[in-house]
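Sequence in, structure out. Go.
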Amino acid sequence: MIQYRRILDLHFKGTSQRTISSSVGHSRQTVSDVVIKANHLGLVELTDEMTNQWLAEFLFPEKEAIAKGYFPVDWEVVHRELQKKNMTLKLLHYEYAQCARDSKKIPYAYRTFCRHYGKYAKKYKLTMPIRRKPGEIMEVDWAGDKLSIKDRNTGEKLPIYIFVATLPYSQLFYAEGFFNMTSQSWLMAHIHAFEYFNGVAEVLVPDNLKTGVNKALRGEPILNEAYRDLANYYGATIVPARVKSPKDKPSVEGSVGYISRQIIASLRYYQCFSLDDLNSKILEEVDKLND
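Output:
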């Protein structure tokens, strides 16, 4: 078998292809094919999981399929087709199986087809751009960092939690401070965000925090009843992000970081004694950044 890992290990160390060929005992053409394919696929370093068999399937999947008697799949084409509207892996597998039978070859079973595509997507660490529509989604979350105000009587610092809402299409965002992260604060924050945006999004995408979701079951999370009532009243739908899946709400995650740098950090020494005063300052900064 071709020593893919050894060839690439030497190549990444700057060894010439002539020397690699002599070292591994393969022809210079074979070495050149492996290096060219690796460069084409953007492979720049080796990790522990990249065994020789892994690299064989990664660099030349069509050879592996043919060797096992299966009709090969062009995964680049599959991924490109999958980005089209209404396209599914089920349909692509059906078309692939038809081509295989027409060529009198053995097609992969659907589950195997999906598993191989999953490996392909993971290897490339591919992402697919999500087409947003104006007013379709509002992503919401609490910022991890906090601000504070001083108690007039004791001089004690009171922590202020920052609510953030973002419209993914326009990237407009809203922020407001609260004394706590209770359900009441959460609902009031939504209402103020609707007022700020002058409208209600069709879909609300919160994290799986207790103020919005009672239980984060896979596929069917149990929503907080008051939160559900608010959504029903405004004619919106709540679709919580999956647990530990920040990419499900990338816009608000980005806005949280942006607000932490541009607003929370800049107001860290701002002295005030009332929440209304602090929120006026936050809103002033929000308007400035949105503009």
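Check: Residues 1-59 form one domain. Residues 211-222 have pLDDT under 50 and may be disordered.
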